[in-house]
Every structure is written in structure tokens, then in C-alpha cells.
């Protein structure tokens, strides 16, 4: 499983409110995406070493990250239209 990060490492425009008070991307989704990317990095070396379980975790993590990217983009587009 992937843990959530509570802090924001990205640019303020991606996690904080500005202007009219709406955030472009929800802080929790962005933080969760960062946590998944961090965890994926830890699976690279075991994958090269031939670990089948690391390969499966990497595949699941990439699919999960892709879904979060789509959610973040959709939220950004919705907020841009409003």
C-alpha cells in the first residue's frame, strides 16, 4: 500500500488556494501522487534484480499514479473553466 504525504513539495499553485480562493488541484490528490512516485522509485532496483513481486508492485503503482494524474488534470480543467 502507499502512504499519503501530508506536506507539499510542489509549486504553491498546485496545492494552495490563490486568487478567488479555489485550489487548482486538491492538496490530498497531489500529495498522494507524490507519495506514489516516491514509492515507485524504491521498486526500481529490486525489479532489475529480478524480483517478480517488485515488478507487480511497480505495475500497480504506475496504474494508480496514472489514475491520480487523470484526476488532478480533470480537477485543474474544471477549476480553469470556473
From TrEMBL:
- For whether the record's keyword set contains Phosphoprotein, the answer is yes
Which superkingdom, per the lineage?
Eukaryota
Residues of the region (Disordered) are: 1-23
Q: Which UniProt keywords apply?
A: Nucleus, Phosphoprotein
Indicate where this protein resides in the cell. Answer: Nucleus
Q: Which positions make up the signal peptide?
A: none
InterPro entries this protein is in?
DOC_1/2
GO CC terms for this protein?
cytoplasm; nucleus
Name the family the entry cites. Answer: Belongs to the CDK2AP family.
PANTHER family from the UniProt entry: CYCLIN-DEPENDENT KINASE 2-ASSOCIATED PROTEIN 1 (PTHR22607:SF2), DELETED IN ORAL CANCER 1/CDK2-ASSOCIATED PROTEIN 1 (PTHR22607)
Protein name as catalogued: Cyclin dependent kinase 2 associated protein 1
What organism is this sequence from?
Rhinopithecus roxellana (Golden snub-nosed monkey)
Its lineage opens with: Eukaryota, Metazoa, Chordata, Craniata, Vertebrata
